[in-house]
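Give me a protein, keeping tokens residue-aligned:
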Amino acid sequence: MKIKKISIIVGTRPQIIKSIKLVEELLKNNFNVKIIHTGQHYDYQLSKKFFKELKILNPTINLEIGKGTQLEQISKIIIKLEGIFKKSTPDLVIIPGDTTSAIASALAASKCHVKIAHLEAGARSNQFYMSEEINRRQIDHCSNILLAPTKNCLQNLKNELVFGKAFFVGDTMYDLFLDQCKKQKIKFSEKLNKKQVLVTIHRAENIKNNDFLKKLSSMLNGLSTNGYQIIFPVHPNTQKWINEMGIKFRIDTIEPIGYLQMLKFLAKSNLVITDSGGLQKEAYWSQTPCITLRESTEWIETINEKANFLFFKKLPSISKIEEISSNKIKVKPSLFGSGNASKKIASLFKTL
């Protein structure tokens, strides 16, 4: 398989972030690269902002699927991609992550006999109520090339006997993290604010749960009363359910923020509370203790390093939060590669 023409399909903020450094490296190596945006995140704050802020190659095509249920979005993406692939078939489709856009793209490419490379392959939470878990497993089992960000992810793929060729390449998000911290002169060694907490919540199993949102409100309100400054960029879906359930937060919330602003908040904060997969890793890389409000995590490495702590049905007490926030974290870069995953992938594609 000689690879020349590559299409990268994205639809959400995390997918864009995973792709940025890889796109740069592929262009440097003279691959013909097109970005197809599904339009899954139709909100400017959650998508276009990142193209502008990080000076990414603009999408060649926008499918503009917009709002809808997951099945509606999946069906629209498949039908539109089929038309695109019939007109101009790429040698390879790169699919980052585990979103609705990702599973739809994988199904479309597979049925159109287009080779698939899955970026961030092998991540597993083993929670089958999470749509992301179902998506990533299905994508892995119809991919020709599986690009694992950690050795644990690679082992997961070996255990599952995937058909495609699997490689440990490192994490392209770590590439971007190191690159932007250097460019923006962001340092994490000394936290400026000993009582600043960065919070993000967006997973469906959390935001659609009235009991969870009440507990979250109580916890954050309690932290605020105890002198903590809470930085809470609210995802539009999260805000929708907060409003619908009438949950009251006695803290200031802010609009969704860009990638660089998130890094700056990480530099100032001494604790992250999240249910995001990506932010767990970014917290670790920034030497910031993390509380993950989920039953399990794909990034078991952060748990083993005592940098990340899982809480599910019972949220942590103020005293437990204070204990966790005082943890000192030393980053082991080898866990997620050495910041050159994108270069490794570009070199790999030249050999296939």
Notes: The chain has two domains: 5-171+337-351, 184-325. The domain at 5-171+337-351 is CATH 3.40.50.2000 (Rossmann fold). Residues 8 and 255 are 28 Å apart (CA to CA).
